[in-house]
Design goal:
500 residues; alpha/beta; Rossmann fold; GMP Synthetase, Chain A, domain 3; 3 domains; 4-stranded mixed beta sheet; 14 helices; 32% helix
Length: 500
Amino acid sequence: MEILKTHAETKGNRVFLKHEGVEYSFKRTFENVLKVAVYLKQEGICAEDRVAIILPNSPEFVFFYYGCAIAGVVSIPIDTRYRKKEIEIILNSCKPKIIVALKSYHGTDYTHLLGKIIAGIGSGIRTIFLDELDIIDKNVSSKSFQSFISLSKDNIPMTIMYTSGSTGEPKGAVLTQMNLITNAAAVNERLSISEKDVFLLMVPFSHAFGSSVLLNEALVAGASVVITDLFDPEHVLSIIATEKITLLYAVPTQVIQLIEAKKRLNIEVSSLRTGYISGAACTPELMKQIKSEFNCDACIAYGMTEASCISISDWKDSCDIRENSAGRPVRGMELKIVDDRGCDVHPGQPGEILIRGTSLMNEYFSGNALGDRWFDTGDIGTKDTNGSLMILGRKKETIIRGGFNIYPAEIERHLLLHEKIKFAAVVGVPDTFYGEKTAACIIPCDGEIILDDDIRAFCKKHLASYKVPDYIITYESMPFTVSRKIRKDILKIDVEKKIK
């Protein structure tokens, strides 16, 4: 974390973090991070020990995230929205030395909840509640940093980020400082991010999009970050306007809500320059709306917990590239598309996406090291003749109907072009004749009623007949992960029950 120390020395009082009106300069942030590192050392936490962080989006999360890194300690961010079972799975997997949390947050009593979980695990995990500590009030000399230099190395684990578990139990991706900082620098190059930019954090720090991507990009650039915890579109629009936010980092569901709120409230937003849209399928129509509503040249990014940002277009690319693809691999990353035999496919042909490079984790926690071999992302995609990537969906979600391969993301993107459809998810269901049939699950826009025949007619205009959904099921809500990915495993079970 030499970069944070350098910023503290060269940028001094320039604002790095802002939260609920309170500002933290690079110097003040570094001092607080150093206090955390010293505290961990005093508590007997050694290099490569693990510390679970269950904190909301806040400066305190940042202090512990980077404080662990300086001390050579491995941080394990855990979402405050997770319930007992979800927290239990992660703690059972990584067995941290301590857990850092608040005694209570948004109705969750962590003293009681964590007490029950730790008793069940029985591994002597200690809990530190920030409400009872005065770490930040203590005086620590910046000279203390020297004692940590040998512990904070580029090639040792910095954090274990657990996947969201959208298709099963979460896995812990072990990421080093080199993985994270080189990736942040590569994305900053692609989007021309500099110290003049202002980030708005409205995705969880506890997920890769929040800390691995956004926070580390801001750190590398020496830019400012305005932190908000719970997403509220009206409040976010107000922050964008008043704080002159220049970068829009969001998942598609958040973007949809921001656009709806802007139209409803007629708020003027003119500061956004570019953005990073990721986490779920994003339609060309939504990208056009971002441009028309915010005059923002946003880009679709392809990333994953295991490798942060893998591919993204340049913010100066043509509208066609930015609206229809996830661009090209960032510096340090390689990507190829292969068939079932592992052979490269021709441009435009779908296949499995394999990656390798400097941003890719070395291993899953308690797993075997990857080495230099290609990593199978489990995603299906295509590349055009210019190398631009389009994501078609997860391989395990591919539907084989009567011998034809159907990629749900393709149908979902088309459904989301319908003016009356707010959300869409496509799953396969067993069928005795075809093997599988397609079921389109939709959430209509507020107050809208859509007939099944209208949806099929809409699909027939642009999709092959075998891709037109066999079943259409309307929902008021769908099961989402806390990072706003649809839990298709749960949805599929519900769809099969409804069809029967």
